[in-house]
């Protein structure tokens, strides 16, 4: 495998809910293990060996509870540490799955704005990420999307704050509709769990995030090539 060397040593800090969080048992987790790699769940990495990839995402978190329960303080400490080492520090921020259960999109947007500003104040680079789609389909084989307004809010805040944006929501909908419900459900943590990912799902969507990062930061990041998987994602072909 090869990768384009970063101009500066790069670190990643991941912020979000369970659809980003690392799995700690076999066949569990969000897309984080597929980006960072994991010896626990067996996911291969999408970024170069030796690149710090610190996943602070937490199951069940909203933008509000992530702060109030102290997980944001953990994220900020990790960001400050990496910046303090002179490393270019990218901070991905993805919420929506749980925010939608308790408050309108604008509430999440206010919290995202604060997070972006705090990340920048530490000298790091915020990267807003729209929500990974749920793999729930209607009778026509299309995703039954309920996350759209929260994805749109994330895009709005990215525009207002001038941040990089990874539209994972749109990319993941396009992909799972292309491969169809049966193949999409083979990425589920359990057969009826259309939100969380098994090891194959983590690998696929972690690679999708890596490819979106590569497009957003062309030639700048230590992304490892995985041409077969990237090509299948781009062409809407199931890998598992």
TrEMBL record:
<dbReference type="InterPro" id="IPR036514">
    <property type="entry name" value="SGNH_hydro_sf"/>
</dbReference>
<protein>
    <recommendedName>
        <fullName>SGNH hydrolase-type esterase domain-containing protein</fullName>
    </recommendedName>
</protein>
<dbReference type="GO" id="GO:0016787">
    <property type="term" value="F:hydrolase activity"/>
</dbReference>
<feature type="domain" description="SGNH hydrolase-type esterase">
    <location>
        <begin position="15"/>
        <end position="201"/>
    </location>
</feature>
<dbReference type="Pfam" id="PF13472">
    <property type="entry name" value="Lipase_GDSL_2"/>
</dbReference>
<dbReference type="InterPro" id="IPR013830">
    <property type="entry name" value="SGNH_hydro"/>
</dbReference>
<dbReference type="InterPro" id="IPR037459">
    <property type="entry name" value="RhgT-like"/>
</dbReference>
């Amino acid at each position: 495998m090869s990768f384009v060397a970063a101009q500066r040593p790069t670190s990643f800090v991941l912020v979000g809910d369970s659809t980003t969080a690392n799995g700690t048992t076999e066949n569990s987790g969000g897309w984080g293990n597929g980006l960072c790699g994991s010896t626990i769940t067996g996911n291969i990495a999408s970024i170069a060996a030796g690149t710090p990839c610190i996943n602070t995402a937490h199951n069940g978190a909203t933008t509000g509870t992530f702060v109030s329960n102290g997980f944001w303080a953990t994220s900020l400490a990790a960001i400050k540490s990496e910046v303090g080492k002179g490393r270019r520090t990218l901070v991905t921020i993805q919420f929506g799955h749980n925010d939608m259960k308790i408050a309108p999109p604008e509430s999440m947007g206010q919290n995202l704005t604060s997070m972006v500003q705090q990340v920048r104040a530490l000298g790091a680079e915020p990267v807003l990420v729209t929500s990974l789609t749920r793999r729930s389909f209607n009778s026509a084989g299309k995703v039954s999307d309920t996350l759209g307004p929260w994805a749109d809010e994330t895009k709005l805040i990215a525009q207002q704050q001038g941040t990089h944006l990874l539209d994972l929501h749109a990319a993941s909908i396009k992909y799972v509709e292309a491969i169809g419900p049966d193949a999409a459900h083979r990425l589920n943590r359990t057969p009826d769990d259309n939100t969380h990912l098994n090891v194959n799902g983590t690998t696929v969507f972690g690679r999708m995030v890596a490819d979106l990062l590569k497009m957003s930061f062309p030639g700048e990041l230590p992304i490892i090539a995985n041409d077969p998987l990237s090509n299948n994602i781009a062409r809407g072909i199931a890998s598992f």
